[in-house]
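Many introductory courses stop at the sequence. We go one step further.
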Amino acid sequence: MAGKYDYIESNLLKLKQRIKSVCDGVGRDYKEIYVIAVSKTFPAELISSAVDFNQLDFGENKVQELVSKQEELSDRIIHWHLVGHLQTNKVKLVVPFVFLIHSVDSLKLAHKIQTEASKINSVVKCLIQVNTSGEEQKSGCEVQHTLKLVKEVAGFENVKIKGLMTISRMMNDEKDENERKIARENFRVLNGLFNEIKAKNIPNVDMKYLSMGMTADYDIAIEEGSNMLRIGTAIFGERN
């Protein structure tokens, strides 16, 4: 059993070195980058190993999987992030323990989070998910409606907006310059929105996190201002 998951420590170290190298290239401090280890489909014991190697933040896509892992690892200090789509009927399951919800994309969903959070006198931190790629199958608020949604959600006492999130257009070839250019443009749009909203100093809105970039495109995301990366494969390996 000893050493079975040592590759996770090695992967985390490689990732940190790569992040530092990208940050150095654009004059940013690598310490300002938060890494969310996306652990969807991977067993709780792998998460536990990553915690042993000082990884604190973990992201899950599905509510059921998140809840079951949180229960299994309740003795560990973990910040749980919901990075996938959240249905209103499942909000009450995550509100008691979630550290950050990355996927608020409608007033209806925000209202449901407000309702459930107020029942237990809690404040839930959220990001507004924006569809910057314009793909119909993707969740996310439309770019032109984001500021309006932020202003509406800011009125909820038990919901705290902490920034924005996006998923860029998926690349078929990570080395293809045209595909990288599209991803870069998606990130650039979100960064522009982030700075525009931040400058407005809207009450109850703390624009702290710009969540963009995954294993395939996090270097571009960092270059375009991201300070929160959602990394799965580069930490845990390929999914089955």
